[in-house]
Amino acid sequence: MTDAVLTTDFPGLTLVHRGKVRDMYAIDGHDEMLLMVATDRISAYDVVMDDPVPGKGKVLTELSLFWFDLLGDIVENHLISADPASYPEACRPYAELLAGRSMLVKKTRPLPVECIVRGYISGSFWSAYKKDTTVCGFALPAGMQESDRFPAPLFTPSTKAEIGDHDENISLDQLKDIVGTARAEEIADISVRLYQKAADYALTKGIIIADTKFELGEIDGRLILIDEVLTPDSSRFWPLDDYRPGQGQPSFDKQFLRDYLSSLDWDKTPPPPALPREIVDKTRLRYEEALARITGG
Questions:
Q1: pLDDT per residue over 132-170, tens digit each?
Q2: Model confidence pTM above 0.90
Q3: How confident is the model at residue 2 (pLDDT cuts 50, 70, 90)?
Q4: Whole-Å CA distances, 185 to 85, 136, 198, 214
Q5: What are the domain boundaries of the chain?
Q6: Nearest Cα to Cα of residue 248 among 257, 264, 259
Q7: Which fold has domain 110-254?
Q8: Residue range 237-254: mean pLDDT, rounded
Q9: Identical fold at 14-107 and 110-254?
Q10: What CATH number was assigned to the domain covering residues 14-107?
Q11: Which residues of 155-188 are buried (b: 16+ CB within 10 A; e: fewer)?
């Protein structure tokens, strides 16, 4: 089994952001780019676990690279290279660790919102629908069941929350107030087109993409697809063969982890509980299965 990477430290590079999973570094003399490293950290309920999932960062990176290539005809993305041999000289001492889990990317100005597209009703949207069939400005059909497919994909942006807080769903009109009408409509159009092409492809591989979160940034006024793309961390992947509307669905993500944590007397605040090896292994295998199905690897 590959050695797990819980955190990174690269003397000579400047850490500019440490997220739940990714570490971002600036490189002296290369202000137009960043080094993005996917660790094996995993979070649940907005809490980063102390126990990593070995190889998870490589799965996320390989999936993102696959989708960047497949979706490149819809919108430009931030990828410069995923080959450490082509990175700036300051990165070379860390090439072995960076291999398979890093990307050299264009530096952008990230949008202040998450670009969420939903093809099926699940999660927070299902919870809201049970209270009112109008959700985030969408008048949804009456009588929908949990996990039902929407008549058409819905663009449902959200605000970006600080770590420990929760994102807040907003309407398209609210997004227009934030970024302007024309830009909001462009964001919505790109997001839905990305989702539709990916969802159509995934179905041919036996996977339903129930919903996903895209990140977009700007360079010189152009919208750029950034961060990770269509991974089990940013999406709900359901096995098509097991799809049964009217209930929650099995998924290729943190299901085993969430189920285990829900069984504990834990208040979902730091510090997190220790994770049994069985839970870590089952989670890792689900991520690896998603990669294998989607990429054919």
A1: 999 988 999 999 999 999 999 999 999 876 554 567 888
A2: yes
A3: low
A4: 39, 16, 20, 15
A5: 14-107, 110-254
A6: 259
A7: D-amino Acid Aminotransferase; Chain A, domain 1 (3.30.470)
A8: 94
A9: no
A10: 3.30.200.20
A11: bbbbbeeeeeeebebbebebbbeebeeebbeebb
